[in-house]
Design brief:
Elements lengths: L2 H8 L2 H13 L5 H17 L5 H10 L3 H5 L1 E3 L6 E3 L11 H15 L3 E5 L5 H9 L4 E6 L2 H13 L6 E5 L2 H4 L5 E7 L13 H6 L2 H4 L7 H13 E10 L5 H8 L3 E3 L10 E6 L2
Parallel strand pairs: 3-4, 3-6, 4-5, 6-7
Antiparallel strand pairs: 1-2, 7-9, 8-9
Helix pairs in contact: 2-3, 2-4, 6-7, 12-13
Bound molecules: S-adenosylmethionine (SAM).
The site of S-adenosylmethionine (SAM) has 22 residues, from helix 7, strand 4, helix 9 and helix 11.
């Protein structure tokens, strides 16, 4: 019997309801995905003696991401787990979609030089490296805790020899790079909307990971110009953003970029763009 079969037979409805209630109280977005993750992680916790159970429920109810509470995240469609330390933006409900697009683009284009801009835990760049077996990836983040997390996750996955980490504002380092593919999930929430976000983003996420300036698009305004020089003419950029921002994000990059439907997967929060020659 596989693990999910085991879960179904051992996890009582009562426990499932308690988990669901805790996640809902904490403002979980995609309840099924997170519920499954919490059930699996709780089973592991119980097997280890269960001493943290109360703490875990309290943290979930307060709105912390389950990936932070348990300190780990499984890169979708792989057997690889990364660490998700406190103080670093955890992967979220859209990460799986972005990774599906990354995988699709990597298969079609076979990039050699990749950058993960605003890497956080490094989840996107690491997913790209798992798919692109010959590629190298530069992880960039302005936050030292994020850089440490990306570095140690690369080591953990045995990918460190294909990775480098640059810990500074990406505006200072991008111009020196020559890239085939950029993956990025940068802050996109308008500053004025932050007080209305759920606790997960308002209280627990680092402000630098969330705050996209007055229109939420501050990063995209400079990203287009900076990357036009850094990306090879045949290169692609895969960007994650918030609901309803697609057109504004592409427009913010400027006229030297166009949206291409090369992934054809139709996810609302991810776009693939390419350079106008
Ligand atoms: C929304 S988090 C995403 C983390 C990760 N890419 C993911 O998808 O889980 C955005 C990240 O961008 C970083 N960041 C924000 N502005 C930046 C800048 N100007 N240069 C480099 N990194 C930046 C933040 O520190 C944060 O780690």
């Amino acid at each position: 019997m596989d693990r999910s079969g085991l879960m179904d037979s051992y996890v009582s409805n009562e426990l499932r309801s308690a988990i669901r209630a805790a996640l809902l109280k904490g403002g979980a977005e995609v309840i099924e995905e997170e519920e499954r993750f919490v059930v699996e992680s709780l089973l592991d916790l119980v097997a280890e003696g269960g001493s943290r159970l109360e703490e875990v429920f309290a943290r979930l109810e307060s709105g912390e991401s389950p990936y932070t509470v348990f300190g780990r995240y499984q890169i979708p469609q792989t057997q690889y787990w990364i660490d998700v330390p406190l103080g670093v933006m955890p992967p979220g409900c859209d990460t799986a979609n972005t990774i599906a697009v990354i995988r699709h683009v990597v298969r079609g284009r076979n990039p050699e030089a990749i950058a993960d801009v605003g890497c956080g835990t490094g989840v996107l760049g690491l997913a790209a490296l798992i798919a692109a077996r010959q590629a190298r990836c530069v992880f960039l983040d302005v936050d030292a805790a994020a850089c440490d997390a990306a570095r140690s996750n690369a080591l953990r996955l045995g990918l460190a020899d294909r990775c480098s980490v640059i810990c500074q504002d990406a505006r200072q380092s991008l111009a020196a790079l020559k890239l085939d593919l950029v993956v990025a999930n940068l802050p996109f929430v308008p500053s004025g909307d932050i007080p209305n976000l759920g606790a997960r983003f308002r209280d627990f996420a680092p402000r630098l990971a969330v705050d996209g300036g007055h229109d939420g698009l501050a990063v995209f305004h400079w990203l287009g110009d900076m990357l036009h020089a850094a990306l090879h003419t045949s290169g692609s950029m895969i960007l994650q953003f918030g609901r309803g921002q697609r057109e504004a994000v592409v427009a913010s990059l400027g006229p030297r970029w166009f949206e291409c439907n090369e992934d054809n997967l139709g996810y609302p929060n991810v776009v693939v763009v390419r350079r106008v020659k």
